[in-house]
Amino acid sequence: MTSSPHQVVLIGSGIMSTTLGVLLKRLDPTLKITMFEVADEISPEASNGWNNAGTGHAGICELSYTPHPEPDGTVNVTKAIDIFQEFESSLQFWAQSVRDGILGDTTSFINPVPHISFVRTAEQVAYLKARHEGLAAHHFFAPMEFSTDPAKIGEWAPLLTEERTDEPIAATKMDGGSDVNFGNISRQLAAWLDQQDGCRVLTGHRVVDLQRKADGKRWTVTATRRFDGESYDFDADFTFVGAGGGSLLLLQKAKLPEAWGLGGFPIGGEWLVCDNPDVVSRHQAKVYGQALGAAPTMAVPHLDTRVLDGKTSLLFGPYAAWTTKYLHRHGSFLDLPRTIKPHNIATLLKIGASNLDLIGYLVQQGTQSMADRMSVLREFYPGAHPEDWRLIDAGIRVQAIKQTDGEAGIVHYGTEVLTSADRTVSALLGASPGASTSVHIITEVIEKSFPHLLEGDEGTRNMRKCVPTYRHDLKRANGASLFRELGRSARDALGLAFD
Ligand SMILES: Cc1cc2nc3c(=O)[nH]c(=O)nc-3n(C[C@H](O)[C@H](O)[C@H](O)COP(=O)(O)OP(=O)(O)OC[C@H]3O[C@@H](n4cnc5c(N)ncnc54)[C@H](O)[C@@H]3O)c2cc1C
Hints:
The chain is α/β, with parallel strands linked by helices. It is built from 15 helices and 19 strands. Helix 1 (15-27) packs parallel to helix 6 (182-194) and helix 2 crosses helix 15. The protein binds flavin-adenine dinucleotide.
């Protein structure tokens, strides 16, 4: 980029775009920022309450971040430590935003909910014990408890042990977990942005095209107002494609060489939800287990307390569902066919052939009856009754498929930032761990496309006014005391448990 970008366009109003908008405006108050959202409200897609599980992914309970034991019986916990540190950046940003009056009542967007991992069978019990030994040795996870005693596990989460036949079980528990309403965070961040000089948030506007201008540096963003079909062109020095599932369609329009060969594989989700107060009051935890069969890691089942708009319910799932839509609310069943191009068809076919297990799993999930779904739930909650549970749609994840994935190709489950060579366009691909690590991901976007804002000591100081832990490596042994100081302060501001 030859000159500093001044006119910024953000496509989408989910957690990613709104986080980027607020951070950029705070780092450079002269920026002019326009956000477009196709829906009439802010953040109705993946970041919206029931469309995700609201787990503040910190590596505490998710077994997918800690693979099976090494030959010596130990468990590698590096990934869980990394995820904890990434989530810490989000907590720090939200806490600072509360102190600065950008975010309001903390219970509207984050609530303390213990995180529990739960396993069955002797082999899994041994694995969880080794995982606990690895994690509890690190200062992030020191308060984590482990038990194989059904009475103790029943104290932590009664539904797990009620009516369970005698079998080896084990669990770990940490009180410092959270349930997050990412939709409400997005809405509050967008409201703040909309009030700033030179910034506006336009709902009901679908971005339909993204073309490089003749000068080769700037972009023309074309948006259509939904209520009257009127189209407008906007100039942008920098465009962030934070359109969630809609990002691939826009990247293909922009004809970025970096997006050449990319394809998208949508996976829908469904939850079972329980509102029966007798059941809800007996479970205050997010309980994660192991992936079942060919289920992808994102479909690892969990039994969760959810606190949305002041109401507490239980959620179980996700059950995967086959779909060709890329967006839940404003998508079309033609989304997948529309993104199949001569440059990505070979990759998509290879992916199909090498992921037959996954495709079989999606077909099987899509044809499940309520009785099938209840039998999966009963692995966690043996006494579950079908009349207490209803099925709802969750959001859609569009997994990015890349040409560079090798001969066979693989479905990606991580989140990646794609930035054009001249750094004037950035987009997010993939969906996991997603919203929890939004601040870590968005920091990467800023470092790539606005490096001058973060340069040197001044850049670090400015960013620490928004994210106090920026450029502090809290995971190293000598980061423990700073983590205790800043970590406790953030949790105090957010009403969360520290230890
Ligand atoms: C079933 C499921 C469970 C999940 N559970 C968790 C969890 O427990 N914890 C966690 O941290 N993450 C979770 N995630 C991931 C998380 O939800 C996403 O990573 C995150 O919400 C993505 O945010 P985003 O801003 O990129 O996208 P979104 O929130 O989808 O926002 C994109 C926005 O762009 C808009 N848009 C799209 N196209 C256009 C266009 N052309 N013009 C204008 N606007 C457009 C959309 O309407 C939408 O509002 C889950 C996801 C799913 C699907």
